[in-house]
Specification:
Elements lengths: L4 H12 L6 H17 L1 H18 L4 E6 L2 H10 L12 E7 L2 H14 L4 E7 L12 E6 L12 E8 H17 L10 H18 L12 H14 L2 H11 L2 E5 L6 E7 L4 E7 L4 H14 L6 E7 L3 H7 L8 H17 L1
Parallel strand pairs: 2-5, 6-8
Antiparallel strand pairs: 1-2, 1-9, 3-4, 4-5, 7-8, 7-9
Helix pairs in contact: 1-2, 1-4, 2-10, 3-5, 6-7, 6-12, 7-8, 7-12, 8-12
């Protein structure tokens, strides 16, 4: 069934305040959201082929992954940004490229400027040179899809994120901790001690890449930032917590097929399990239906997270979305670099 953009807007308003609507209205809105996400299939696949090709041209060991935005994340964003509408949300679908270093990040940005015709470039945000107060760093590129032969997909938006391995390790730790704290640290929610720790750590990591410090810590020296970050690391027992999370999800159940392209991932904190189902490139609609059903089933269960993503392999899935596997080993390795760096500064 097809829905008009006005119906999509209406669905967004219902989802934003669904506690105020009867169940049949909420079901209608959820069905519209499922349809709206499914419309983005061509956008996602076309841009993924472009990004993947350019990433490989720069570094064969770098990789790109793609995902459909989770319903809880969509609803949270609608609530957070009052003027935002479902029809204008720029990251219903997104692609993330993980590069080895800053030089490769900027190489990819320049290559994508030339490789995305006939699609229209819309917006550029550099959260590496201008990091958020939370400590989040990445480059965001927003494009408008050009498809004159298909009015339904024409002008749909997509977001491309480009970040380094170091920045990715930080974001993974934040998302993993957010999962267990049941809050969203990336957007400034949650206890101040966690927000301060991750902002401090991002500022410490900035010295490893010679990038801009987080604004609230820019007055501190490298030695002072390292000392404060390591103090908070020890005081809050971050290593013990993150290692515990990683151990919790060591059990993975995979239902894979021969021609997998999409992966439906369900993380159950309560069961200490990660479930993965795979689908071929031709089974997007079926995968999206399954995605929606699981989101409905676990909508009131804060211990379960579901996401539909696409990568070239399960290994890349684990690398691109390690927070769904509670894997923060790279983040802890980078904290060791801060510890060694402080020793050298003394």
């Amino acid at each position: 069934m097809e829905y008009s953009r006005n119906q999509v807007k209406k669905a967004g308003k219902i989802l934003k305040n669904k506690e105020n609507f009867l169940s049949d209205k909420v079901t209608f809105a959820e069905n519209v959201l499922q349809y709206w996400r499914s419309l983005h299939e061509d956008v996602l696949n076309d841009f993924y082929s472009i990004v993947d090709k350019e990433v490989e041209a720069i570094n064969k060991d770098a990789y790109a992954v793609q995902r459909l935005k989770r319903s809880p994340s969509i609803i949270a964003k609608l609530k957070r940004q009052n003027n935002n509408q479902l029809t204008t949300m720029q990251d219903i679908v997104g692609i993330r490229a993980i590069m080895a270093n800053l030089s490769e990040v900027y190489q990819l940005r320049e290559r994508l400027k030339k490789a995305t015709d006939p699609h229209q470039f819309e917006k550029y945000d550099n959260y590496i040179t201008d990091p958020k107060e939370s400590g989040y760093r990445s480059i965001h590129l927003i494009y408008k899809y050009h498809s004159p032969s298909n009015p339904q997909t024409d002008r749909l938006l997509i977001e491309i994120q480009i970040r380094t391995e170091l920045q990715h390790s930080w974001a993974t730790a934040v998302e993993t901790m957010s999962t267990f704290l049941r809050t969203n640290l990336k957007f400034g929610e949650g206890q101040l001690k966690w927000l301060n720790y991750f902002a401090l750590t991002s500022s410490a990591f900035s010295f490893l890449e010679s990038t801009t410090q987080i604004p609230q810590y820019s007055h501190l020296s490298q030695k002072e930032v390292y000392e404060k970050a390591l103090y908070e690391f020890r005081y809050n027992k971050i290593e013990e917590r993150l290692n515990g999370f990683t151990t919790a999800a060591k059990h993975i159940i995979e239902e894979t097929s021969d021609n997998e392209y999409y992966y439906l991932v369900r993380l159950s904190i309560k069961e200490n399990m990660v479930y993965i189902s795979s689908y071929s490139i031709d089974d997007f609609s079926y995968a999206n239906n399954e995605y929606t059903e699981l989101e409905r089933e676990y909508s009131n269960d804060p211990t379960t997270e579901v996401v539909l993503v696409s990568t070239d392999s399960v290994d890349e899935l684990k690398s691109g979305f390690p927070n769904y596997f509670l894997d923060t080993s790279k983040f802890l390795n980078n904290m060791d670099k801060i510890r060694v760096g402080l020793t050298l500064l003394k």
